[in-house]
């Protein structure tokens, strides 16, 4: 005879089974963004107010281009995860599924558009 206590059945499950991993992923991306953002603001601030040729010249160098791409991808991934968490907390049923799909698509579209514009400047 096998006897499982309530605690033994619940260990490692959590509310949805993946809440801890989602929380840690959000924490890691937040720290990464906190480290990238000041450096990017300095790079962006130095290009701000320049002519179009000066801005293109700034972002066609490898360091500003790679930094901007990293910030864009990490920021949109963080946005999509955070918005999904908020939607899952407050929406229900089909509206939840549609909203999560729309937010994820929006994040991917913004990231793709930004990377395309960056590639056009860098090349």
UniProtKB/TrEMBL annotation:
A Pfam family that this protein carries is Sdh_cyt
Any idea which UniProt keywords this protein has? Answer: Electron transport, Heme, Iron, Membrane, Metal-binding, Transmembrane, Transmembrane helix, Transport, Tricarboxylic acid cycle
SUPFAM superfamilies noted in UniProt:
Fumarate reductase respiratory complex transmembrane subunits
Membrane spanning stretches:
24-43, 63-87, 99-119
Q: Which cofactor does it need?
A: heme
Cleaved signal peptide residues: none
Q: From what superkingdom does this record's organism come? A: Bacteria
InterPro entries per record:
SQR/QFR_C/D, Succ_DH_anchor, SuccDH_FuR_B_TM-su
Q: Which residues form a coiled coil?
A: none
Membrane topology term: Multi-pass membrane protein
Q: What pathway does the annotation place this protein in?
A: Carbohydrate metabolism; tricarboxylic acid cycle
Q: Which Gene3D superfamilies match?
A: Fumarate reductase/succinate dehydrogenase, transmembrane subunit
Q: Does the keyword Iron apply?
A: yes
Query: Subcellular location, in the record's words?
Result: Membrane
Q: Cite the record's note on assembly.
A: Part of an enzyme complex containing four subunits: a flavoprotein, an iron-sulfur protein, plus two membrane-anchoring proteins, SdhC and SdhD.
Function of the molecule: Membrane-anchoring subunit of succinate dehydrogenase (SDH).
**Name of the protein this chain belongs to:** Succinate dehydrogenase hydrophobic membrane anchor subunit
Gene from which this protein is expressed: sdhD
